[in-house]
Amino acid sequence: GCSTTSRLGQDEVLYTGVKKIAIRPDSGVELSSTVESAIKAPLSVKPNNPLYSPYIRTPLPVGLWAYNHLYTPKEKGFKYWLYRKLSKQPVLVSKVQPEIRTKYVDDVLGNYGYFDADAGYELLPRRNPKKAKISYSVKIPQAWTYGSISYPKPTDGITQLIDSTKAQSLLRVGSQYNADSLSAERTRIATLARNNGYYYFRPEYIEYLADTTQEHLKVNLRMIIKKGIPTMALKAYTVGKIDISLQNSTGKGIWDTIYYKDMKMAYQKPLRVKQSIMPSNITLRPGQVYSVTEQDQSQTNLSRLGIFRYI
Questions:
Q1: Structure confidence at residue 311 (pLDDT)
Q2: What average pLDDT does range 269-295 have in this prediction?
Q3: What DSSP letter does each residue of 202-214 carry, written as one string?
Q4: N or C: which end of the chain has fewer CB within 10 A?
């Protein structure tokens, strides 16, 4: 009468949580807390009525009991209302998909340089064969490190700029391979470029070529500028005209113009801010090399004034 599996199909098995997540690094391998969390997160699927997820469940699975014993095909009446209120869909092993999760863990570990990691699982049936726990095992070998790192040859403006800041690179020979660091380095260079006039340059215009065949556990890395990117992404821009438009909250009023040394401001009368506020808070100036940081700073300055509805 208390069964929580009576409505399951012939091939359906109720997932009752994780028995164990065994992380087995090779001798000398020390995992960071970040990597351990990255392993456990996709494997820690909550079962029904978790108490200490994903390992322990509460002893009174009210939602599952209601799902199995209060179901009625009639979509009306007190029993149907109670079923809708109390029942919980069973979490099935087929929905947890442990085989896909272990493959995902292998991919995640590859992003941290553990290219030969091997995650597996075992299904552990309970006394009731319609219930099962899952036990995971993750074998972690030595991590791969950077054997060499090369940047594009400084043949034009953008590659010369990249070459001039190699000392600030987030990548170091001998460091552990890390996909997040590769992404962060692309972002660093794109920000550098956009602060030096390359308005249209984006992180995705940078690619990496990795060679793992020269030496075991060594990645020889080469950064390149992607082929076929827009020509304008390789062109440095300067600031042109700076025009400001101040519209009042009603959107009504006569327009007038104030000319400053470096910018022009059109506004709807009456002007409710001091004339000096705009040029003193906009850090961009005509003729200077475009900088996304200066643009962001100007917007921040204006936002902090607290007098504009939007900018």
A1: 87
A2: 92
A3: -GGGEEEEEE-SS
A4: N
Q: What is the model's pLDDT at position 97? A: 98
Return the exposure string of 160-195: e unless at least 16 CB atoms fall within 10 Å of the residue's CB, then b.
Answer: ebbeeeeeeebbeeeebbbeebbeebbebbbebbbb
Q: Which residue type occupies 31?
A: L
Assign 57 to helix, strand or coil: strand
Eight-class DSSP state of 74: S
Cα distance between residue 236 and residue 234, in whole Å: 7
pLDDT in tens, 127-139: 999 999 999 999 9
Residue 249: pLDDT over 90:
no
Looking at residues 295-306, what average pLDDT do you find? 94
Amino acid at 207: E
pTM score: 0.82
Nearest to 90 by CA among 37, 119, 120, 128: 128
Torsion of CA 193, 196, 198, 200, to 10 degrees: 70
pLDDT at 2 over 80: no
Among 184, 158, 100, 98, smallest CA distance to 134 is for 98
One DSSP character per residue, 137-202 reads EEEE-PPPEEEEEE-----SHHHHHHHHTGGG-S--TTSBP-HHHHHHHHHHHHHHHHTTT-TT--
Cα angle, residue 22 at apex, residues 104 and 116 outer, rounded to 5°: 50
Determine the straight-line distance between the first and last CA of the chain, rounded to whole angstroms: 65
User: Cα-Cα-Cα-Cα dihedral of 174, 177, 182, 183, to 10°?
Assistant: -150
CB 93 within 8 A of CB 129: no
Q: Write the CB contacts of 151 (distance below 8 Å, at least 6 apart in sequence).
A: 159, 162, 163, 166, 169, 223
- Nearest residue to 192 (alpha-carbon basis) of 220, 163, 229, 155: 163
Pair of tokens at residue 305: 């004034």
Identify the bridge partners of residue 176 per DSSP, sorted by sequence position: 145
